[in-house]
Write a structure and sequence with these properties.
With about 425 residues, this protein is an alpha+beta fold. The chain has 11 helices and 18 strands. A hairpin with a 2-residue loop joins strand 11 and strand 12.
Length: about 425
């Protein structure tokens, strides 16, 4: 083969990160054609899923959403089962689907059925599909299902080794974690790679994400006539102590790179009722010093060491009480951080190659500080893992959530061809 001298010079001096696009195989071309022909069916399936209200605490709703996905996966030849959680955990359970074969890499595909908000309404308008979970992450689940349908259409699911885990409590994991994440961990130990379908962020992929931990403050003071506030007998009251602690958190922890901390709920008064860390009520009169305050919130962290430092500093701040007040802080582990690894970076390069071959361009690595916690973090310590393969859109965890309709064919194509190449 003769290569022109100028062309050869260009090839020699390409950036090290540059990967030349390769033509798709005949099977891969068939996958793209199938996906293009079934775009409207994908949107119909997404609308059907979004219409099911499935916030984490709505156990029946999560189970209905799981039943819909289970039917779709049964039709694809997966062996499916529903894993119930103990009643005292107040979580719906998880959907597990599996195909057992003999060739290719063993893949774990991760999604979740629950949402932060109930399904209040949905609509398709212009290039957007609005509704709770449309982006986070029912859109991701539908990408999985339609990529698998495309693979089935050319017989490419035959002989593959795939496990799908759609959890029912990703937005608020049930405790103890040893039970709520037992089945996910077991599936991870039987897999070579994990692909997770949390929302896509532009043209990026995730190999590192922050962990999450919750904290609770319980503060007491002396109930007395308001005229005695700050006196030696009455002290400063529970509400001022809560304010002091939170302000010192804000001043002393915010300099930590990649660490965030959010007080999500605060109540104070003389009649405080704590239903649970997310629901509370309080009463009090303006002429009475509050004797109780309660605050709950979360921490997001990049490493376990950063989490330990933050907790130690928070305990130190809480211990320096205002007069006649006392306070305690407790912590609860939730999601571990996902640390980047060379193996996950290599897997991201495979996705980048798929994207370039499809003509979609480079896939970049997303800064971990731009990611919250996710189920993939439980398996990432022991198998190469990618996240952010799901739907594009905006407004997750808000009433204004929407999925970008136009981006779905691209995202399904990427997923289908990545699975195809990894399972040959």
């Amino acid at each position: 083969m003769i290569i022109h001298r100028a062309a050869l010079a260009c090839l020699l001096f390409l950036p090290a990160s540059f990967t030349l696009a390769a033509p798709l195989s005949p099977d891969e071309t068939k996958l793209v054609s199938y996906i293009a022909a079934h775009r409207e069916a994908l949107l119909t399936d997404l609308e059907q899923s979004v219409a099911i209200s499935s916030l984490t605490e709505d156990l029946a709703g999560v189970q209905r959403c799981g039943a819909l996905a289970r039917t779709q996966l049964d039709e694809l030849g997966f062996a499916t089962r529903w894993i119930d959680m103990p009643a005292e955990m107040k979580r719906a359970g998880h959907l597990i689907a599996e195909r057992t074969g003999t060739h290719g890499k063993r893949l774990l595909l991760i999604g979740h059925l629950d949402t932060v908000l109930p399904s209040l309404s949905q609509r398709r308008e212009g290039g957007k599909l609005w509704g709770s979970g449309s982006q986070d992450m029912k859109g991701g689940n539908i990408i999985v299902i339609h990529a698998l349908r495309a693979l089935q259409s050319i017989g490419a699911l035959d002989g593959t080794r795939l496990i799908i885990v759609f959890t029912g409590d990703e937005e608020s994991a049930g405790h103890p974690l040893e039970i709520s994440r037992r089945d996910l961990l077991e599936a991870g130990h039987r897999s070579d790679y994990a692909l997770a379908f949390e929302a896509a962020v532009r043209d990026t992929i995730t190999i590192a994400r922050r962990g999450a931990s919750s904290w609770k403050l319980d503060i007491t003071g002396v109930q007395a006539h308001s005229a005695g506030i700050f006196s030696p007998a009455a002290g400063d009251g529970a509400v001022f102590e809560a304010v002091r602690i939170l302000n010192e958190f804000r001043e002393k922890l915010r300099a930590e790179d990649g660490l965030t901390f959010n007080p999500a709920l605060i109540v104070g008064g003389t009649d405080v009722d704590l239903t649970d860390p997310t629901h509370a009520s309080a009463g009090g009169k303006t002429n009475v010093i509050a004797n109780r305050a309660f605050v709950s919130g979360d921490l997001r962290f990049q490493t376990d060491e950063q989490l330990r430092r933050a907790r130690a500093l928070m305990k130190e701040i809480v211990a320096h009480n205002l007069p006649r007040t006392s306070a305690t802080i407790t912590f609860e582990d939730s999601y571990p951080a996902m640390a980047p690894t060379a193996e996950s970076r290599a897997l991201s390069a495979e996705l980048d190659r798929v994207s370039r071959d499809l003509g979609f361009g480079e896939v970049k690595l997303l800064d971990a500080k731009q990611r919250g916690a996710g189920d993939v973090s439980f398996v990432a310590p022991f198998i190469p893992s990618l996240d952010g393969l799901g739907a594009r859109g905006e407004g997750s965890h808000t009433p204004n959530e929407f999925a970008d309709i136009a981006s779905f064919p691209e995202l399904v194509e990427r997923t289908a061809i990545l699975i195809y190449r990894l399972t040959r």
